[in-house]
Amino acid sequence: MTATVRVQREDFDLAAEVAALCRGRTDIGAVVTFSGLCRDEAGALAALELEHYPGMAETEISRICREAVARFGLQAATAIHRFGRIAPGENIVLVIAAAPHRQAAFDGANFIMDFLKTSAPFWKKEHRADGSAGEWVSAKDADDAARQQW
Amino acid sequence: MSTVNLVYFSWVRERIGKGEETLELPADVVTIADLLAHLKSLGEEYEAAFEHERVIRAAINQEHVEHGEPIAGAREIAFFPPMTGG
């Protein structure tokens, strides 16, 4: 089983990542992808600044992917998280889970995202469209609750 | 005394005014909680960063730990707010 994990400044191509994950394989029956994008918050947000802990970010996402693979019997998983300045409409994160059947792929992608949000060392700061000082985004109780359901 | 590299992220970094530093720690600093108390005694920027101590997350050698964790053998200790990636 392979888990592909990357933490990078540049954008990613969802279709190319799915193709890379499936290349040369005939045993995969289900591929679920999740991508998280930057919202403009009704025009109030100019961009997000994504800070991360280099090294630990990759290690933590890899650990989460390995756990998902073991728990849901995934055949492959990919997780890519961007950092730096990201404008509304741009990609932030991509998760791909592949399995013989759909439920494991859905659950695997969901699990990876729930744990990534609460355990992977990334922090978002807002840049406001009106030029005023932006705030650090607060962690949501709903994200902790989502993780605890597993 | 022991020497440890400290790294800070997000608003913890901003309030302290630096992203990393190397400190000599007194022998009575045994756990993450002891270290937080020690840092808060170093100045008002640390007091501001660690004002709400219970929300502060810690990592030793790039692995999440609780505040009761002993810091013996740590090369790098990180402090940061709850994470907001994804």
What fraction strand of chain A?
A: 25-35%
CATH class of chain A: Alpha Beta
| End-to-end separation of chain A | 22 Å
The CATH homologous superfamily of chain B corresponds to: Beta-grasp domain
| Count of alpha/pi helices of chain A | 4
The geometry of chain A reads as globular
Instruction: Tell me the domain tally of chain B.
Output: 1
The strand order across the widest sheet of chain B is 2-1-5-3-4
CATH superfamily of chain A: Molybdopterin biosynthesis MoaE subunit
Oligomer: heterodimer
Just name the CATH architecture of chain B. Answer: Roll
Report the span from N to C terminus of chain B: 39 Å
Helix content of chain B: 25-40%
Number of strands of chain B: 5
State the CATH topology of chain B.
Ubiquitin-like (UB roll)
N-to-C SSE string of chain A, H for helix and E for strand: EHEEHEEEHEH
Number of domains of chain A: 1
CATH fold description of chain A: Aldehyde Oxidoreductase, domain 3
List keywords for this structure.
heterodimer, A: 150 residues, alpha+beta, globular, B: 86 residues, Ubiquitin-like (UB roll), 3 helices, 5 strands, 26% helix, 29% strand
Offer a quick outline of the entry.
The complex is a heterodimer of chains A (150) and B (86). Chain A has 150 residues and is of the alpha+beta class.
Write up this protein.
- The complex is a heterodimer of chains A (150) and B (86).
- With 150 residues, chain A is α+β, with helices and mostly antiparallel strands.
- Chain A has a single domain, classed as Molybdopterin biosynthesis MoaE subunit (Aldehyde Oxidoreductase, domain 3).
- Helix content of chain A is 35%, strand content 33%.
- Chain A has four helices and seven strands.
- Chain A has a four-stranded mixed sheet, sandwiched between helices. A three-stranded antiparallel sheet of chain A has the order 5-3-7, with no helix packed on it.
- The longest helix of chain A has 18 residues.
- Chain A starts with a strand and ends with a helix.
- The mean pLDDT of chain A is 96.
- With 86 residues, chain B is of the alpha+beta class.
- Chain B has one domain: Ubiquitin-like (UB roll) (Roll).
- Helices cover 26% and strands 29% of the residues of chain B.
- Chain B is built from three helices and five strands; from the N terminus they run βαβααβββ.
- Chain B has a five-stranded mixed sheet with strand order 2-1-5-3-4.
- The longest helix of chain B is centred in the middle third of the chain and has 9 residues.
- The model of chain B has no long low-confidence stretch (mean pLDDT 96).
- At the A-B interface, strand 3, helix 2, helix 3 and strand 7 of A face loops of B.
